[in-house]
Specification:
The protein is of the alpha/beta class. The protein has two domains: 2-123 and 291-321, Medium-chain alcohol dehydrogenases, catalytic domain (Quinone Oxidoreductase, Chain A, domain 1); 126-266, NAD(P)-binding Rossmann-like Domain (Rossmann fold). The chain is built from ten helices and 15 strands. Helix 5 (177-185) links the parallel strand 9 and strand 10. It is globular and about 60 Å long. The model has no long low-confidence stretch (mean pLDDT 95).
């Protein structure tokens, strides 16, 4: 099979398409034929080596955590899936940027027939992160107002869908007309252009001057200081993404009794992850979860995908297609 391999940390060009042996299932493991693999910003941070050393993969490695496809074979003791099943993958043992992958049984989950494989590859990291941030950490409640900052990307669209279904008032931001249209289509009550200098004034008017209860922040190094000025009393900021140092005035947080919380989906507990996957299955079946695929890029062009996923003006999820 073909797979993307990284032999040294560095720029996108360190990723190379290579021939690898087909994986074989062992006890409790599953081989999946990958039809699409999701690309996440965290993939680029790992590939560049910019994560703490204890979090970096051992070289050489195949990148990727999200995928969808069909089960090829299963090892002894596997009972929940069988050969031929359509599945989405939430992490793996071998990496997902490949024609096949090896995963633990608990990392493989049913993919309802109404979703395409590309949509399946857009499920785990975006939707699990948004759910974890909104409900496990921020404890979002029906009737509260949430600002999804950067709502046209993979995590942003997921957050808008989850929050709207939960009865929250949803305000999203995007930087292009195409992105703003997408945010509205996914259920936001209001959409603001975060390139406009007065967009936070517009937000305060929408809330009658009260501010928002929850903010999901995708670019904290740019926005966090301003976020704190539009929070309601006891508001919560969930930091999902940041690409540099952050400078804030802590008085803005103190005056609101505010809470700033970093979000890392892989710090979730086992019970939390089981709850997320149960919610995902039910929500895929009833149409609440509707992944948006912005680009499909050939597996061999993974370096281009890593460049695209960090560009401004995000629109849905980028997936690699073997």
């Amino acid at each position: 099979m073909k797979a993307i391999r990284v032999h040294e940390f560095g720029p996108p060009e360190v990723m190379r398409l290579e021939e690898m042996p087909d994986p074989k299932p062992g006890d409790g493991t599953v081989v999946v034929r990958v039809r699409a693999a999701g690309v996440n910003p965290v993939d680029t941070y790992l590939r560049s080596g910019s994560y703490p050393p204890q979090r970096l993969p051992k070289l050489p490695y195949t990148p990727g955590m999200d995928a969808a496809g069909e089960v090829v074979s299963v090892g002894r003791g596997v009972a929940e899936v069988k050969a031929g099943d359509r599945v989405y993958v939430a992490g793996s043992l071998s990496g997902t940027y490949a024609e096949q992958l090896l995963a633990l049984e608990k990392q493989v989950h049913p993919l309802p027939k109404q979703l395409s494989f590309s949509q399946g590859a857009a499920i785990f990291t975006p939707y699990a992160t948004a759910y974890h941030a909104l409900f496990h950490l921020a404890r979002g409640q029906a009737g509260e107002t949430v600002l999804v900052h950067g709502a046209s990307g993979g995590v942003g669209t997921a957050a808008v869908q989850w929050a709207r279904a939960a009865g929250m008032t949803v305000i999203g931001t995007a930087g292009t007309e195409k992105g703003k249209k997408l945010v509205m289509e996914n259920g936001a009550h209001h959409v603001l252009d975060h390139n406009e200098p007065d967009y936070l004034d517009q937000l305060m008017k929408l809330t009658g001057g009260a501010g928002v209860n929850v903010i999901l922040e995708m670019l904290a190094n740019k926005n966090l200081g301003k976020d704190l000025t539009v929070l309601a009393n006891k508001g919560r900021v969930m930091v999902i993404g940041s690409r540099g140092p952050v400078e804030i005035n802590m008085r803005d947080a103190m005056n609101r009794d505010a809470w700033i919380h970093g979000v890392a989906i892989f710090s979730s507990s086992e019970p939390e992850m089981r709850g997320i996957h149960a919610a995902l299955l039910a929500s895929m079946e009833n149409g609440t979860v509707r992944p948006v695929v912005g680009q499909e890029i050939p597996l061999a062009e993974a370096s281009r995908a890593h460049q695209a996923v960090l560009q401004p003006g995000s629109y849905g999820k980028i997936v690699l297609v073997p």
